[in-house]
Amino acid sequence: MDGSTGAAMPDRPAISTPARLSGQEFLRAERVRLARQPGLGLAGLLLVVPVAALFAFGADGAANSVRLFAPLVTFALPALAMVAFWWEDWPGSRLHPGLSGLLDTVLIAAAAIALAFLGQLSIGHVDPVGVFDPTPGPGHAPLFPASLPLAGGAFVAVLQLTLVCEGWPLRRLPRLTGGIVALAVSWGAAIVLYFVAVDFDAPPGSGLTSRSGPVPGPELGAVLVLIGAWQVWVFVVWRGWPFADHPSRAVRIVSANIVVIGGALLTYALAHGPGGAGPAVVNAAAGNFVAAGLIVGMLFEGVFRPCLDPVAERVATLAGTLVVAAALYALLTLYADGRHWTEPSSEEWVGHAALNAIGLSVILHVAVGRRWPFGDNTDAVDGTDDTQRPAGSGT
């Protein structure tokens, strides 16, 4: 991005724009970047792993890290999506990539705190102790776990709007305005979903408000993570296939929404019904798939492309994602099973360590930090620069 906030965006996100509609400059930069894989992804792990460890253990142990960081990171994700996908790293894009990532991260952290207070107000009342203390004690309004369906709903909504719905019709707006409106719309949808759907019994003296909706909070949270898993599968691992190649925007958007949301609901029904998996287990498994999809599809973007045809590449990227997800789940579960847990549960930590700690770290490195210090200015949200995509590529 050139730093301009007034210019309109291309009709479609770069991540799901077919190569045949891409400009020659974009294709050249992509070839240069892909030629550096897998070394580029391996180098990125030098930053991703320490940051992930900080979010997984940094609040005086694993349990407190879930209580403190799981809500704050989840509240940060919608703002991160706005900066990365809509603003294309503005205002940091005006600076050197190292300073760019730092400035944008500070902005996202500040937005996360503001949104956490907004979320806390929605589920009870504003209480700074409940936001910043992992064990706030009686009389305070803790964010964990009550706020997670609300925060997760906002992130899923902004990704659904941004990727599945191609940002339509907000991509006609200037970048800065479009991002703010997308964030506001997504938050509005999440608040409505929370007030209409969530069933929650507030602990006595917590100051939180009980809700009598049709869906328990943990079940709604698990479904939301599954929607996120399908979003990552289709739009990060498979770059929008099979929908991206269809010439009609209406067909692309409607069919993608049906598949992503319907696939998530069907997955939960099968896992929770015949599979007998509880919401925490579903959440942990789906969270590991999301983390793996971001590692394979974003950190190691295009690693199979130089040596495989498109069909074989899609098979390889999905297989690689499943292998990485299984390995992550096994390693995290092995650690969690060796500890004593009350609240949170071991499955909740596994889900947090994968989805929030690893997932956020990958996005921060690739999408916000532009792979600094290992990448260059051509590395943006999904390893691409959206300004190289042609406008008018949708119908």
**How do the helices and strands follow one another from N- to C-terminus?**
HHHHHHHEEEHHHHH
Rounded mean pLDDT score: 89
Name the helicity range.
Answer: 55-70%
Large-scale geometry: globular
Q: What about the largest sheet?
A: 3 strands, mixed
Rg over CA atoms:
20 Å
Distance N terminus to C terminus? 24 Å
Structural class: mainly alpha
What portion of the residues fall into strands of 2 or more residues?
under 5%
Give the count of helical stretches: 12
Main sheet: strand order: 2-1-3
In total, how many beta strands?
A: 3
Low-confidence stretches: 377-395
Describe the protein's topology.
Blueprint: H1 24-34, H2 39-57, H3 62-86, H4 97-123, H5 128-132, H6 148-164, H7 175-197, E1 198-200, E2 211-212, E3 215-216, H8 217-237, H9 249-272, H10 279-299, H11 310-337, H12 346-368
Parallel strand pairs: 1-3
Antiparallel strand pairs: 1-2
Helix pairs in contact: 2-12, 3-4, 3-6, 3-7, 3-12, 6-7, 6-8, 8-9, 8-10, 10-11, 10-12, 11-12
Task: Name the features.
disordered C terminus, 395 residues, 2% strand, mainly alpha, globular
How would you describe what is shown here?
By secondary structure, the chain is mainly α. The protein contains 12 helices and 3 strands, in the order αααααααβββααααα. Helix 3 (62-86) packs across helix 4. The radius of gyration is 20 Å and the shape is globular. The two termini are 24 Å apart.
Brief account:
The chain is built from 12 helices and 3 strands. It has a 3-stranded mixed beta sheet. The longest helix is centred in the C-terminal third of the chain and has 28 residues.
